[in-house]
Amino acid sequence: MNRLSNNQDWRLPVDRLTIISLVFFLLAALIFLRLFKMQIIDYDNYLQAAEAQHLVEKELEPERGNVYIHDYQTGSEILYPLAISKKYYLAYAVPTQVKNPVLTARHLATILDMEEDTLLKRLAKEDDSYEPLKHKLEEDVKNEIEALQLEGIRFSEEIFRYYPEGDIAGSVTGFIGYQGDDLVGQYGVEGYWQEELAGKTGTFTFERDAAGQLIPSAERIRADQENGADLILTLDRSIQFTACNALKKTVLKHGADDGSVIIMDPQTGAILAMCSYPSFDPNKYNEVEDYNVYNNSTIFEPYEPGSMIKAITMAAALDLGKVTPMTTYEDTGSVEIAGYTIRNSDGQAHGIKNMTQVLEESLNTGAIFAARQVGLDMFRNYFERFGFGQKTGIQISAEKAGDIRNLTYGKEIFMATGSYGQGFTATPIQIVNAFAAIANGGKLMKPYIIDEIRYSDGEVKKSQPQFLRQIILEKTATTLSAMLATTLSAML
């Protein structure tokens, strides 16, 4: 027993040494693995964390591109600004430096068009070192205040979007507004061309010491910002001004809810004027009573076009050789289709009439007669070829396609009502483009409003007229144009 006990006592230190060695080995292994993870696996993460302690990155904001229009009446290449970034001034106070708040408030109230009491409350904040007073001051206002040499009144520059033409082209330009915390283009070309106008943000990275001071000799990294592109529109300033003012007078004269005008070059598709009324001044976009006024009604608001569509119906019938200008039918004043009675707008029967007279007198029964000669399938086909039910692709935000689904159902009643412009919807831009095709020998062009894009690096992209398709034969377009000219003469 004693021998066994002695053997056990003799082996005990060896077992303890083994355990202690094993523990140290495991600890060393853990330390090694930790160092391996830090120095190899997580090296990039720790490097970034270390750099973050002494590297500072600042964003370099690009200048937003401008929007211009021509004035072809001047016969020159002078461009007129439609949307620009303009320098204004913020007036602010350092209340701790304002020695006479009452007198200072009295001087500023008239110039800033603010209540004297409101100003006094801001100027009298004794512990305040910065108190904004008013934004978007013009330079002459700033100069007037500076001439008073008011103690504690300071100015800082600020950039805002400015629209020199006001409400003459508000629905075309759109405006700059907040989307979350960012100022971005909304509606019109400002919204559609946001990416091109905004440009690209740059960065400037520099190194600072432990005290947060810039290290003069340290290497600095700069990625220059890319200023936004300038847009040159196809609009003619004189035509735009005349058209928009005429539209406003006409809407008010007749007590209409709204109206729109588009003037297009039929041979190219270039938009020379585009007006909506009511309109808005994008400089004061936040003062409108109804946000719907932001939408450009020439592309955004489909409606039943009515009797002007009789010309499109006649185009199909003429093009297929189903009628000529002198083809006649008997107008009994009404047509019965599928249990429905369709009458002329005046409710009268007009007897024997030819196709030119159908257009001159705007006879619903005559339009139905022409549509029946065309047939359901070809009638729908011609409307699609003219571009109805499809977006034109003009480069402004929020274009709508209109709705011609009724013409796809294969029912004669929908063809009949469609022949004189009811039962489907179209936008003003679609209607103008359809008639432009008739004036252009049956050639449908793509409407466009961007003449040039001028990038900050000097690159210029010039828009070219884009031919889409031949809708009707040239001789059909010539015949129909003569019929429409006769119709217009009869109305004058």
Automatic annotation (TrEMBL):
Residues 61-216 form the Penicillin-binding protein dimerisation domain. InterPro entries: Beta-lactam/transpept, Beta-lactam/transpept-like, PBP_dimer, PBP_dimer_sf, PCN-bd_Tpept. GO terms for biological process: cell wall organization. This is Penicillin-binding protein 2. Residues 259-486 form the Penicillin-binding protein transpeptidase domain. It is found in: Membrane. The chain crosses the membrane at residues 17-36. It comes from Candidatus Komeilibacteria bacterium CG10_big_fil_rev_8_21_14_0_10_41_13. GO terms for cellular component: plasma membrane. PANTHER family: PEPTIDOGLYCAN D,D-TRANSPEPTIDASE (PTHR30627), PEPTIDOGLYCAN D,D-TRANSPEPTIDASE FTSI (PTHR30627:SF1). Its main location: membrane. Keywords: Membrane, Transmembrane, Transmembrane helix. GO terms for molecular function: penicillin binding.
